[in-house]
Amino acid sequence: MTRRRNRSMVFVALTALTCGCAAFQSMRDPTPGIDTSRSEYVRNNPGNRFNDDIGVGRIRKGMSRLQVRVTWGDPDQIVRGIGNETWAYQETEPSRGYAVCRLRFEGELLTRVDLDHSGVPLSTDESAPQNLDAADKALQSPAVKK
User: Fold this and answer.
1) Is residue 145 part of a domain?
2) How far is Cα 33 from Cα 16, in angstroms, rounded to an integer?
3) Long-range own/partner contacts, residues 36-40 (CB < 8 A, 24 or more apart)
4) At what angle do helices 32-44 and 65-72 cross, to 10 degrees?
5) In terms of DSSP bridges, do strands 109-117 and 23-25 run parallel, antiparallel, or are they unpaired?
C-alpha cells in the first residue's frame, strides 16, 4: 500500500512538472503559527496573484522569499551562493517516506524547485539532470544553516 501511494505521489508530481503547472504542496502539516502567518499575509496583501496558493500551503516559481517563508515556514537548511540561495525542506515521516524539497532563489524570486521523494529526483528545470547528489553534498556541508 505504501509503495503504491509513493508511486502515486511521484506520478502526480511528474504530471505537474510536465504540464507546466508546477505547484508544490507543503510536505509538512502546518503549525498554528504558519496558518496564522498565511492568513495575515493574504489579508494584508489583497490582489496578490499567489494568495490562493499561499492560503492552502502551495508554492510556485515566481514567488518571493517572503511568500515562500510565509507559506512553508523556515527552511531546514540554507546554502548561499553568489546572487542565489538554495533552501531545503526535509520530510522524514515514516508513513510518508523520505523527501527533500530544494528551492532555488535567484535574487528574491523562486526560480527552481527540485524534489527528491524516496530516491526519485524531480525538477522544474527541464535541462537539469535528475540526479541531485551535488546538491545533497552542498546541503550536508557545514556551509550556511538557518
Assistant:
1) no
2) 28
3) 37/70, 37/73, 38/70, 38/71
4) 140
5) unpaired
Give 50-60 pLDDT, tens digit per residue. Answer: 999 999 999 99
What is the tally of structural domains in the chain? 1
For residue 84, the enclosing domain spans 2-140
Q: Tell me the β-bridge partners of 84.
A: 106
3-state secondary structure of 60: strand
**Residue 104 belongs to some domain of the structure:** yes
Q: Which grid cell sits at 48?
A: 496578490
Pick out the chain residues at pLDDT < 70: 1-22, 26-27, 95-96, 119-146
Residue type, 64: S
Per-residue cell: 56: 492552502
**β-pairing, 23-25 with 58-60?**
antiparallel
For the whole model, what pTM was predicted? 0.67
Strand order across the 109-117 sheet: 77-80, 84-91, 99-106, 109-117, 120-123
The verdict on residue 113 lying in a domain is yes
